[in-house]
Amino acid sequence: MKYVLVTGGVVSGLGKGVTASSIGVLLKACGLRVTSIKIDPYLNTDAGTMSPFEHGEVFVLDDGGEVDLDLGNYERFLDIKLTRDNNITTGKIYQSVIEKERRGDYLGKTVQVVPHITDAIQDWIERVARIPVDGKEGPADVCVIELGGTIGDIESMPFIEALGQFSHRVGPGNFCLIHVSLVPVLNVVGEQKTKPTQHSVRQLRGLGLTPNLLACRSTKELDDSVKAKLAQFCHVPLSNIVTLHDVPNIWHIPLLLKDQKAHEAILKTLNLLSVATEPNLKDWTSRTKVYDDFHENVRIAMVGKYTGLSDAYLSVLKALLHAAVAHNRKLIVDWVPAGDLEDVTSKQDPNAYKVAWGLLKGADGVLVPGGFGDRGVQGKILAAKYARENNVPFLGICLGMQIAVIEYARSILGLHDTTSTEFDPEAKNPCVIFMPEGSKTHMGGTMRLGSRRTYFQVAECKSANLYSNVSFVDERHRHRYEVNPDMISQLESAGLSFVGKDETGSRMEIVELPSHPFFIGVQFHPEFKSRPGKPSPLFSGLIVAACEVKRTVLSPSYGQTKLTNGSYNGHSPILKSHQNGKGSNTTNDSLNGIYTNGNGVYVDGSF
C-alpha cells in the first residue's frame, strides 16, 4: 500500500480537500486504484452534531456515517463509496483508546499520547486504507490522506507525530507528502511573497515531516524565480513545485496538476513509474472545458435556512450542477432566505421581503433542501404553496418534503393548525411526527441514517420513470421525523400520492402531486449519490421541468405498467429530450456552474 499525505500551511481554507481529490483523480487516471481518508482534529466523534454554519454540510455515507463534507468531494471526484471509518477524528481515536484502557488491553501500563494515541492513529490508517471502496475486491493501490487544519494547530499535534512515525513505519518509497501552502501577492508591490511558505515548511520539518511536493496556492501562476526561491529555501526539487492558481472552476485542478507533471513526481516518490500508465483525462477535460459553450440558463430558487453559507448545501449545489450540465444549461442558483418570505419580514425589513419574493417568482424551479429547527419554516411553506399553485417545478428534500405535506394539509384539507412535532411538540393534529425508534435524549448518531430502500407503489409515476422504472431504489437518509402514517389516507383522498414507501409500507419516502407538472418531495437525500456525468434522476427531472422540456418520462399518466424488477444503481438514466419538436440525446458535458447570492453577485465556483 502506498500513501499520499496532504497537509496545509499558512492559512485554512486553501482547498486541501479539492487538492487531495484532484490528486486522487490524477492517480486513478494513471490506472491506479485509489481510496481516501480525511483526518479532522476536532474532539467531536463525527460531524453529525455540528452546525452547518460552523462546519458546512454534514455528508452522509451509505453506512450511515455523518462525516466531513470533504468526503463528499472524494466520492464525487473518484466515484467511490467510502465508510464512516474513512473520516478520522480526535474524538474517535481517544474514544477507542479509552475503551481499550477500560477493558484492560494495555495490561496496566500508563496510557499516554505517545505511544498509545499515536499507535492508534497509525493502526486506524492502515486498517481503513485496505477497505475496498470502488466495488472491486482487494485493497486499493494508493491511499490519499488529508490532514485537516493548518500546520501548527495545537489540536493536530498528535496526528503530526503519528504521521511522522507512520512515514518510517511504511518505509521509503511508500509515503509521499504534499504540502499545500499560500503564496500571497501584496497589492502594494504586486510581488509574490514566498516567506509564509518558507516558514510553514520550516515548521513542518521541525515537527518531523519533510514535504516531497509543494502545491502553492496563488492568484496567478508562480514566476520561475519564485519557484526557484522556494526550491532553494524549502529543500524541494524545482520539478516538484506546482502552482494551483485561481481557475474558473475546481475541475480544472486535476488538469493543472497533470500539465505540471505532478503525477510523475508522485509516482517517482512512490516507486510506481513502472506500473502506472500515462494519465487519461479525456472525459474529464471535455466535461471541464465545454461548459463555456452553453448559452441558455436555468434558474433555481434555493429556499433555505443557511443561505448565508453555500457550503451548508454543497452537495445540493453539486447535484443541481451535474443535472444542469447534463442538459446543456448554465446553472443560476438564487439564494432565498426562508425567513425573508414570511409576513413578519414585510414589516421589519420590507426591502428584504421584496427581494426574496422577487427571486422566488423569477425562478424556473424551486428547491427546498433539508434542515432542522423551526426558523424559516413558515417561509418554506409559503414557497411550497407558491410553487404548487403556480405550476412551478418543485423538489423538496427531507424537511422540504415534510414542508410540502404540511402546506397541502393546511391549504387543501383545511387543517390550519397542523404542523410537525419538531416545531410544536404539543401539536394536537400533527401531520409530521417523531419516529418511534428515535432518541429524545441523545443527538449524535441517533437519526435514521444511511442507505435505505424505497419501494415504488405506483407504476408510471414521475419518480419511477426518472429512475428507469425500477421497483426500488437505495438512497441515503438523515432524519428524525416522518409523515404521520395516520394521515396518509386523508392526504391521498385530497390528491397527494405517496408513490414511494419503505419496506414496511408505513413510512412515506416519496410524495407527488399528479396534477402538477413536477411537484415531488423525498424523505431521502438524493444529492449525496450524484456524480459528475451521472446526475441524480430527481435533480435531472427538476432541471428538465424547469427548462420546460417536454418528456414522456414526466407524463402524469398513471397506467398499469408493471415496474421493472431490480434496483436503481445511483445514476440517472440516459433520456431523450424533445425541444421545439426536435429530439436530441442529452450529454454530460461540463462541470462548472454559475451561482448568485441573491443580490446579483455572481460566484463562478473558483478554486
From TrEMBL:
A GO MF term: CTP synthase activity
Keyword DNA repair attached: no
Catalytic activity: UTP + L-glutamine + ATP + H2O = CTP + L-glutamate + ADP + phosphate + 2 H(+)
GO BP: 'de novo' CTP biosynthetic process; pyrimidine nucleobase biosynthetic process
Metabolic or biological pathway, per its Swiss-Prot or TrEMBL entry: Pyrimidine metabolism; CTP biosynthesis via de novo pathway; CTP from UDP: step 2/2
Record keywords: ATP-binding, Glutamine amidotransferase, Ligase, Nucleotide-binding, Pyrimidine biosynthesis
Enzyme Commission number, as recorded: 6.3.4.2
Name recorded for this polypeptide: CTP synthase
Provenance organism: Lupinus luteus (European yellow lupine)
